Amino acid sequence: MERLSSTSEVVVLGNAGVDTNVYLPGQDVDWSREANFTENLDYVGQAGGYTSRGYAQLGRRTAFIGHVGDDAPGAMVREAFTKDGIDQRGLFLDPTGTARSVNIMYRDGRRKNFYDGKGHAALRPDLDLDLCRSVMAGARLAHVHLPDWARHLLPIAKELGLTVACDLQDVVDPEDPYRLDFIRLADFLFFSAANHADPTPLIQAFLRGRPDRIVIAGMGTKGCALGTREGIRHFPPEPLDLPVVDTNGAGDALAVGFLTSHVLEGRSLPDSVRRGQLAARHCCALRATSEGLITAEQLEQLAGRAT
């Protein structure tokens, strides 16, 4: 996929790496045995990998700022990003290696994640800030995940006039000190409601700090919730005849589909939520891969069928 110009529309700030999905032959790990025979599959994933590849698959000019190691998993990430035409000028070196995840996969598509971020907790902008500024210059959207170093680039994104969207992942406390910088500077907040039977109080807390922002909670099989100054609206999941085999990347696809639709294409909030959910639902039908994420043509076709 060729990049259309030297200026990107969206810049992803985050961690990309290699995931290993471990598919269980039964309903759960058999803890009575030392050995379990499983199917183990490696692929380019994690939040930064899924979102960067998701935007590129939708035909958006995409850049990535983050780290990989000088190792075989890092080469996998670089090869996938090159294939997708993703601007890698901001792809820096983590001397401790490329981030890895192991996902224990259940038959209904659920996962239990074990994450190894390598050196990301200790990395600071040894990042070249001038280079990062040049990567972001001219873009419209910064899609930011939660590595510690990314907080140092948020003021630059705001200074350059980018819309800033932050994914808080499975946040529990709206006052979590680690996430406060991300929360404070975000125009759009996404989070997983995995830790909340009802995400309403959390959405309300985020809106109290910035009533002009937009908050989206992914609720899995319950759909998602949209919070604005007008209130909170719940959207049921989109009914598609697709199997749910792997929920990895679904939250990233929701955010990518929504932000592409609303920020980059100017569609309404309800239409953008619907398209985000369709992208997420498509992602859940992909098994152990970030290849084959939804294209603009596929999303348009599904959106037309869903109306």
CATH architecture: 3-Layer(aba) Sandwich
**Main beta-sheet strand count, sense and barrel state:** 9 strands, mixed
CATH class: Alpha Beta
The percentage helix is 25-40%
Number of domains: 1
CATH superfamily: Ribokinase
Globular, elongated, flat, extended or rod-shaped: what is the shape? Answer: globular
Distance between the termini: 30 Å
Walk me through this protein's architecture.
The protein has a single domain (10-15, 45-96, 124-306), classed as 3-Layer(aba) Sandwich (UDP-N-acetylmuramoyl-L-alanine:D-glutamate ligase), CATH 3.40.1190. The chain is 32% helix and 24% strand. Helix 1 crosses helix 7 and helix 8 crosses helix 9. It has helices at residues 46-57, 72-84, 129-136, 154-159, 180-185, 200-209, 250-264, 269-284, 296-306, and strands spanning 10-13, 17-23, 39-45, 62-68, 87-93, 99-105, 111-116, 141-144, 163-167, 188-192, 214-218, 224-228, 231-235. It is an alpha/beta fold. The longest helix is centred in the C-terminal third of the chain and has 16 residues, at 269-284. It contains nine helices and 13 strands.
